[in-house]
Fold this protein.
Amino acid sequence: MSARTLALLALTASLGIAGCGSAGLSLPESRSLVIQSGARLSADEDRLMSIYEWVDAEVKNIDLDPSFWIIVDRGPTEVYPWETLEISGDTASVRTRQTNPDLGSVYQIYAHMHLMREMDREEDWIPEAAGMEGWEFERRVVARMADAWLLGRASFGFQPSRIMDELVYAKEAGQLDAMLLTIRGYEFPEEKAAWLETRPGADEAFHAWYRETFGRDLILEE
């Protein structure tokens, strides 16, 4: 069974609402996210439903639209989706950790949004980033992916993932840009320099937040 089918089952069939509209539907009772440090995170039902609506539409498009192909490969290590994303023509591929198949459900959304931009169709799926490139497009795609992971963890029992949980907590705390520019500053050097210049102390504040939330320092790979 493909990751695309797994996602469709997780986000529609498990509700028993396949083929129905969203009006009058309710999600499974949500649960707070709890990470190893003990930090908790929750989202209200209205927000989770709004996330579900666009995730459901996007996953169905990934599963049913014959004009493109999203491939989710499995590997032994946990990696960010941008580390393995490859786009060739009408196909995008990305890799997830083989021991956590739930990651494929949101990594495919990341790949889909990037492929839609290459095909000039991003306005249909991420209108807030239409016409954008580089950092401005990327930060919005990651924010969407973080929301999709929040939905999966809170409403559908997705397995924890250190890197995805960290992105979700960062977004909810208003620290997502800081986190992305900290771990990906080499990709966006101008944007990181501008962030450091216009927000004195933001770097130290981010690391302090990270340490307090996750109970450890952020270790950047060389």
